[in-house]
Specification:
The complex is a heterodimer. Chain A is mainly beta. Chain A has strands at residues 5-7, 10-13, 19-24, 31-37, 44-50, 53-57, 64-68, 74-78, 87-94, 101-102, 106-110. In chain A, the strands form two sheets. In chain A, strands 2, 4, 5, 6, 9, 10 and 11 form a seven-stranded mixed beta sheet that branches. Chain A has a four-stranded antiparallel beta sheet with strand order 1-3-8-7, with no helix packed on it. By secondary structure, chain B is mainly beta. Chain B has strands at residues 4-7, 10-14, 19-25, 32-38, 45-51, 56-59, 62-67, 72-77, 86-92, 102-103, 107-112. In chain B, strand 7 and strand 8 form a beta hairpin. The chains are: A mainly beta, B mainly beta. At the A-B interface, strand 5, strand 9 and strand 10 of A face strand 4, strand 5 and strand 10 of B.
């Protein structure tokens, strides 16, 4: 157990729908990062939050949004889903000076 | 921003031989360089990291070297075993900036029995 919890593990939904992915960071970590990994691809950075505030933004689509709550858990909202959004979505957390710890990911399948 | 290039994209080695994966980075302010191993369908896991105040770090069969002047760092795996087969990602960050890791594109390592 890495200490970073992601739910759900698997999600199957139809095109046009909206889903929410949830992440609880490792205890004490203030930063949360979201990454998208399509089949056989690298880790595409989506967005970073630090202690409730957005800190960095990557190639995140306008259909996607995220937030980090006062208890430091984070949610990634994906709307108007398309087939191409099917991917593994990873959350990671870190504390200053330490590397990332990744969660087990949410596998999203859009049909 | 930071840009990390990783080579090769695929690597096959005979069991027992050594494997070397190389990365270059662009931001001279980066000073933290971790390596992650990702098995199929699983989360990336940190296997070793190095900070800019050292040139080499070793952990059993795995070692990382860093050349700050040339802005490149490498992962060395010796006496490779079938369980070393995975995708390996290098990354770089400035821990005193926003701490975001910039990842390389990954190397698929296959160990041939």
């Amino acid at each position: 157990d890495s200490g970073v919890t992601q739910t759900p593990k698997h999600l199957i939904t139809a095109t046009g729908q909206r889903v929410t992915l949830r992440c609880s960071p490792r205890s004490g970590d203030l930063s949360v990062y979201w990454y998208q990994q399509s089949l056989d691809q690298g880790l595409q950075f989506l967005i970073q939050y630090y202690n409730g505030e957005e800190r960095a933004k990557g190639n995140i689509l306008e259909r996607f949004s995220a937030q980090q709550f006062p208890d430091l858990h984070s949610e990634l909202n994906l709307s108007s889903l398309e087939l191409g959004d099917s991917a593994l979505y990873f959350c990671a957390s870190s504390a200053r000076g330490r590397g990332y710890t990744f969660g087990s990911g949410t596998r999203l399948t859009v049909v | 921003g930071e840009n990390v290039e990783q080579h090769p994209s695929t690597l096959s080695v005979q069991e027992g031989d050594s494997a070397v994966i190389k990365c270059t980075y662009s931001d001279s302010a980066s000073n933290y360089f971790p390596w992650y191993k990702q098995e199929l369908g699983k989360r990336p896991q940190l296997i070793i990291d190095i900070r800019s105040n050292v040139g080499e770090k070793k952990d059993q069969r795995i070692a990382v070297t860093l050349n700050k002047t040339a802005k490149h760092f490498s992962l060395h795996i010796t006496e490779t075993q079938p369980e070393d087969s995975a995708v390996y990602f290098c990354a770089a960050s400035n821990p005193f900036g926003n701490e975001k890791l910039t990842f390389g594109t990954g190397t698929r390592l296959t160990i041939i029995p």
